[in-house]
Write a structure and sequence with these properties.
By secondary structure, this protein is mainly alpha-helical. It contains 4 helices and no strands.
Length: about 100
């Protein structure tokens, strides 16, 4: 049998991140340099072990109300503005050299 190069703790924490995060599974996998199919397999195994119903992960909720969508989009907009401002400052810093 093949031994994994990832510990059980790493797998569990990665699965928890995927299940509880608003980020897509593919983005989390890319950020952690894990193949996306590997992460999906870990999630599937975790759900089977903990008797969690299997369903699509991070699917958009069709029951999201308008108020919830507005709140989510405002939060995302705020984050994007912060990222933009950081990039502007970094560009200005490196341009003056």
């Amino acid at each position: 049998m093949r031994t994994s190069k990832y510990t059980k703790e790493f797998k569990d924490s990665t699965v928890q991140l995927a299940l509880n995060s608003e980020e897509s599974v593919s983005k989390i996998a890319a950020d952690l340099d894990i193949h996306v199919k590997t992460l999906y397999n870990w999630i599937s195994t975790y759900k089977k072990e903990h008797n969690i119903p299997l369903r699509r992960i991070n699917q958009s909720s069709s029951t999201e109300t308008t108020d919830e969508e507005i709140k989510r989009l405002r939060k995302e907009n705020k984050l994007l503005k912060q990222e933009r401002d950081i990039l502007k400052k970094a560009t200005a810093y490196f341009a003056k050299d």
